[in-house]
């Protein structure tokens, strides 16, 4: 069945500060430094200032969602630690604030005028990470905490603007900031000024423009436009490779042998898109650094569909894979893998953070808008190394018994040993999701 793509979304900005800098951000007040808090994070430490802010992005951005991991470290009286959206100036923006007294507020701020659009009473503890999100789509503004909508309002006060981070008489850490579009209006990242170098991790792919993803995740399978025999071994990719939806085949024996070559090897910053991998596909795709895999399909996964070897951010956007007796995505290097708009069928694990590689890292995965069918585990991580897995808009098809494991937890071990399984399920520490994030069909 041919695949139809009707709506598009894109990740247009991301930053996890793993390069040790806050390049691409504009400071206004406060004391901001990149620190190590599990992973690298941006910290505001001056509790004596009422208005410490960092801004990024473009004032022309309109319809988008911004998310960030936020950890309040201390609260002053009536202080807050906040995420900002649609900022057109230093004091004009929508704000989602963690506040003392177990309060979260979604606000429209215009100078000294602060309109509360919605609020909720929930636990807000210092020293705890929360995932904040603001969805701005036309006049609809929504605030989310850990994937749950805590406020939704109609507001025409601010139509466009940048993203931002803020504290007031408080201190906090900020990490894993991501901006995605909603579909009809695509923000564009502004060109750097002559005196500012673009930050490599502030874009999902380099070179190349932001990549679209299918929304909702696909349910069908694409028809190849033709065949492209792989006659000369692994295809090296730098820059952008567009396969035109041809079927690329064949390498390897279709088994689980660890020594099989990949069909494609992506240089750091490379993008591969519109490719179908036929069987046997060897070890699929290797990403040597940051990479984007867009609308790529595996008809029969051999050893692994893709392996991520070294970088800070990797993106799998759209596409699908089936017939993986073990893993689909293998995460060997450091950093964060973002999987969105993906379809997986008949598999062991959609994602596995390596539990016994020669080098051990703290690894993270963000899985959003994904459909799975006949799978055992969606993500397996190593909690003793501080791995995290975050899930939203997950649809599990044909599993009335809810037997599919969403998040499996292991203790990683040195190479040559086998990781120990230590549990499964959401815990707010390593595995992040709520019942509303998973749909069982």
From TrEMBL:
Domain (3-keto-alpha-glucoside-1,2-lyase/3-keto-2-hydroxy-glucal hydratase) ranges: 17-179
Primary subcellular site in the record, as a coarse category: secreted
Cofactor (UniProt): Ca(2+)
UniProt GO MF annotations: hydrolase activity; pectate lyase activity
Low complexity bias spans: 178-206
Entry GO CC: extracellular region
Keyword Lipid biosynthesis: no
Superkingdom field: Bacteria
Positions of the UniProt region annotated as Disordered: 176-230
UniProt-annotated location(s): Secreted
Keywords for this protein: Calcium, Lyase, Secreted, Signal
SUPFAM superfamilies on file: Concanavalin A-like lectins/glucanases (SSF49899), Pectin lyase-like (SSF51126)
Pfam families linked to this entry: 3keto-disac_hyd, Pectate_lyase
E.C. numbers: 4.2.2.2
GO terms of biological process kind: pectin catabolic process
Compositional bias annotation for Pro residues: 207-221
Annotated catalysed reactions: Eliminative cleavage of (1->4)-alpha-D-galacturonan to give oligosaccharides with 4-deoxy-alpha-D-galact-4-enuronosyl groups at their non-reducing ends
PANTHER family (UniProt xref): PECTATE LYASE F-RELATED
Family: Belongs to the polysaccharide lyase 3 family.
Protein's name in the database: pectate lyase
Organism annotation: Catellatospora citrea
